[in-house]
């Protein structure tokens, strides 16, 4: 008999309202205290979305502008480090948001890259597998 953790099933749909909340949390500088701004129900409910494939994220992120994508990259970087069950490795939404920025001809600047390195131990953020 094995014991593992259960994650609720996800249908590949990512809640745009939660993404809006994530942007606001990031903009307001609450990334160091995410657990104070996201309920335990939201932590459990949205954890499986952290490992959804790029195709699901491309659809969910398409309507966000470049500045919003940058806020989401910061949010997901910190969420992965501080929220239980939000570990994503090479499937991090921060990677998918960065790839979308690149497709739009935008690149993270040196300060943004430095910030990511200071706030994440995920070696795949922001570029994914090379």
Distance between the termini: 38 Å
Q: Unreliable runs, pLDDT <50, ≥5 residues?
A: 4-9
Strand content: under 5%
Tally of separate domains: 1
Largest sheet: none
Shape: globular
Coarse structural class: mainly alpha
Oligomer: single chain
Report the average pLDDT across residues: 92
Radius of gyration: 14 Å
Instruction: Specify the helix fraction band.
Output: 40-55%
Number of strands: 0
Describe the overall structure:
There is one protein chain. This protein is an all-alpha fold and 130 residues long. The chain has one domain. Helix content is 50%, strand content 0%. The longest helix is centred in the middle third of the chain and has 17 residues. About 5% of the residues have low confidence.
Please render the helix and strand layout as text.
Blueprint: H1 16-27, H2 40-46, H3 54-61, H4 66-82, H5 93-103, H6 110-119
Keywords:
mainly alpha; globular; 130 residues
Briefly characterize the structure.
By secondary structure, the protein is mainly alpha-helical. It has helices spanning 16-27, 40-46, 54-61, 66-82, 93-103, 110-119. The chain has one domain (22-27, 34-119).
């Amino acid at each position: 008999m094995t014991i593992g953790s259960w994650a609720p099933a996800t249908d590949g749909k990512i809640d745009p309202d939660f993404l809006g909340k994530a942007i606001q949390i990031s903009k307001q500088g609450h990334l160091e205290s995410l657990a104070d701004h996201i309920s335990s129900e939201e932590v459990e409910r949205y954890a499986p979305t952290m490992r959804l494939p790029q195709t699901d994220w491309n659809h969910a992120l398409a309507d966000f502008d470049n500045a919003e994508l940058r806020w989401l990259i910061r949010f997901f970087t910190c969420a992965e480090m501080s929220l239980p069950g939000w570990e994503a490795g090479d499937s991090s939404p921060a990677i998918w948001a960065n790839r979308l920025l690149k497709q739009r001809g935008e690149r993270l600047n040196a300060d943004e890259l430095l910030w990511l390195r200071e706030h994440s131990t995920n070696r795949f953020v922001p570029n994914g597998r090379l």
